[in-house]
Amino acid sequence: MKISARNVFTGTVRKVVRGPVSTEVTIRIAKGIDMVSVITTHSAKRLKLKKGLRAHALVKADSVLVAVD
Question: Are 40 and 23 in contact (CB under 8 A)?
């Protein structure tokens, strides 16, 4: 698989919470660091996502916001 995104994080699926329309997927990308994504339930089923599966989190953003208190 070749992609244009440069921000690719590989990890292990830690949790999958399926809903009727959307599914929340938590991927552990490093010790103590999780990435959480909400995708369609249809996509989660198509990818056969389950706990323990190796997965890739790809980040493609138009902007990054920075804020301070």
Answer: yes
Are the C-beta atoms of 65 and 23 separated by less than 8 Å?
no
Q: Tokens 């323990």 belong to which residue?
A: 52
Topology of domain 7-59, CATH:
OB fold (Dihydrolipoamide Acetyltransferase, E2P) (2.40.50)
The helix/strand count (H/E) of the chain reads as 1, 4
Does residue 9 contact residue 27 with C-beta atoms inside 8 Å?
Answer: yes
Q: How far is it, in rounded angstroms, from Cα 16 to Cα 2?
A: 26
Structure tokens belonging to residue 2: 């070749």
pTM value surpassing 0.70: yes
pLDDT tens string 3-30: 877 888 999 999 999 999 999 999 999 9
Could you tell me the two tokens for 47? 């990818």
